[in-house]
């Protein structure tokens, strides 16, 4: 079940941290932003009342951008992250949803219906821009 506008908690922090850079300073800066920037939202997917997946993103008009998405290790591969993203598209009436990611997550986005294109990367890792468009 989708929970909109979840207040950050230690559980959502742990879920989002799974998708963040391993740099502790960058993790803390991102978590701080979710608490202080009203444009940075957290939404969760719950199973039996427990948040098993969290997505952090921003919305501008009918466009959403995924900043981070993480699933509890006991619940990976069960479709919760995909369900969360598709439910957010519907609940927030988004026309497009995008994410920039690395090779580790590109296949997840492909399997979730996103088009995935490689983009230039400032790091030593390949980067991808992923787009999901709602047909109207």
TrEMBL record:
**Domain of life assignment:** Bacteria
Against Pfam families, the record matches this protein to: Acetyltransf_7
Question: What GO molecular function terms would the record report?
Answer: acyltransferase activity, transferring groups other than amino-acyl groups
Q: Which residues form the N-acetyltransferase domain?
A: 2-136
Indicate what this protein is called per its UniProt record.
GNAT superfamily N-acetyltransferase
Task: Write down the species.
Answer: Deinococcus soli
